[in-house]
Amino acid sequence: MLLRKKLCIPGFQILVNCAIAILLLIAIVLRVSLYHIVTTDYTFFLSQWYDFIQTHGGFAALKYNFSNYNPPYLYLLALTTYLPILKLVAIKTLSVVFDGVLGLFTYLSSMPFTSPLLFCSNYHAIMLTFELCTILPSNINRQSCLCSERCPLYYRYHYG
């Protein structure tokens, strides 16, 4: 109990909140810094599917069998064709958004397991799990920013 009282001082809470904000900013900056990288997955699949959807009337293109991805991803990809942004940015942003959703589900699923003895409130412990999920190198390199893969989208539908 004495440890908990020591960690609950206002200065510590401000420090933890600043650390959480800095980690979130680092996760965003790392992802945006990888937007310019074009991978083979993007070149051979995602870019061609985006072009197919765009040239065949957006959502109307979904009646054709041109992809092996799941329909929710293709719906969202079709939605991005209507936005006035670059194709590479649209595809990577779609994956990055679902990295955030994956972090949110990690945040929500960790709520029952946080210990009030280690943190002043469950909020700090839960936000730390969200930050760790979004800043892990495997998420940054493999899934959203670098390869534009849809793994976070699959995770969202599996865990959500």
Summarize the biggest pleated sheet: none
> Which ranges are low-confidence, i.e. pLDDT below 50, for 5 or more consecutive residues?
154-160
Mean pLDDT: 75
SSE series = HHHHHHHH
Separation of the first and last Cα atoms: 35 Å
Structural class label: mainly alpha
**Portion in strands:** under 5%
Question: What's the helix count?
Answer: 8
Q: How many independent structural domains?
A: 1
Roughly how many Å is the radius of gyration? Answer: 19 Å
Strand tally is 0
Helix content: 55-70%
Shape: elongated
Outline the structure in words:
- With 160 residues, the protein is mainly α.
- It has one domain (2-159).
- The protein has eight helices and no strands.
- Helix 2 packs parallel to helix 6, helix 5 packs antiparallel against helix 6 and helix 5 (87-110) runs parallel beside helix 8 (151-159).
- The longest helix has 24 residues, at 10-33.
- The protein starts with a helix and ends with a helix.
- Residues 154-160 have low confidence and may be disordered.
Short summary:
Helix content is 69%, strand content 0%. It is an all-alpha fold and 160 residues long.
Task: Provide the fold topology.
Layout: H1 2-7, H2 10-33, H3 40-55, H4 71-80, H5 87-110, H6 122-135, H7 137-144, H8 151-159
Helix pairs in contact: 2-6, 5-6, 5-8
